[in-house]
Write a structure and sequence with these properties.
The chain folds into 2 domains: about 100 residues, no CATH class; about 30 residues. It is extended. It is mainly α and about 160 residues long. The N and C termini lie far apart (about 50 Å).
C-alpha cells in the first residue's frame, strides 16, 4: 500500500495490513514465466501443426492455410470456454493463454456466456464486445494509421 492510503487507515487497520501482507503467498515469478512460456508455446505449436495438416491433407498453400487454422483455433477456444475448461487452463498457465487468437475468442465467449440471461440482443450482443471492443477499435485505428503512412510514402515515391 502507498503511504497516502496508510495515512487514512486507523492504527489497527495499518497493523492488520502489515499482518496480512506478511502472510500473503509470494508468487514465483520464474515458475509463472515458465508456465506461460510453455503453455503459449504449446498453443502456437498446435496452431502450426494445424496449419501443416491443412497444407498436407487439404491442399492449401502456406498463404491460404492460415484462415482455416485461425477458424479452428477460435472454435476450439470457444468450445473450451463454454465447457469451462479454458478457465482451468488459464488458471494454471497464466499469461500463456492470452495468445491473440485464443485469448480474444475466450474473452468474447466468456462475456457472452456471462450475459446470456439478459437475452440475446441486449445481453449477449450488447455485452460480448465490452472487453474486446477496445481491442477491435484500437486495432482498426492502428491499421488505418499504418495504411495512411504506407500510402503517403508510396505517393512520395518511396517504397
Amino acid at each position: 500500500m502507498s503511504s497516502k492510503k496508510n495515512k487514512k487507515l486507523t492504527p489497527t487497520q495499518q497493523k492488520y495490513q502489515k499482518f496480512a501482507k506478511a502472510r500473503e503467498p509470494k508468487p514465483s515469478v520464474i515458475k509463472n514465466c515458465l508456465k506461460a512460456f510453455l503453455s503459449g508455446g504449446l498453443i502456437c505449436t498446435f496452431g502450426q501443426a494445424l496449419q501443416m495438416l491443412f497444407i498436407k491433407y487439404f491442399d492449401f498453400t502456406e498463404t491460404t492455410a492460415g484462415d482455416p487454422t485461425v477458424a479452428v483455433l477460435i472454435i476450439i477456444s470457444v468450445l473450451l470456454t463454454g465447457f469451462g475448461v479454458y478457465d482451468h487452463i488459464a488458471q494454471w498457465a497464466g499469461a500463456g493463454t492470452i495468445i491473440p487468437i485464443t485469448g480474444f475468442a475466450n474473452t468474447i465467449a466468456s462475456a457472452s456466456i456471462e450475459h446470456r440471461s439478459e437475452g440475446f440482443v441486449l445481453g449477449v450482443g450488447g455485452n460480448m464486445f465490452k472487453i474486446a471492443g477496445s481491442v477491435i477499435a484500437y486495432g482498426v485505428f492502428s491499421a488505418f494509421v499504418v495504411s495512411l503512412i504506407k500510402v503517403t510514402i508510396q505517393a512520395l515515391g518511396g517504397i
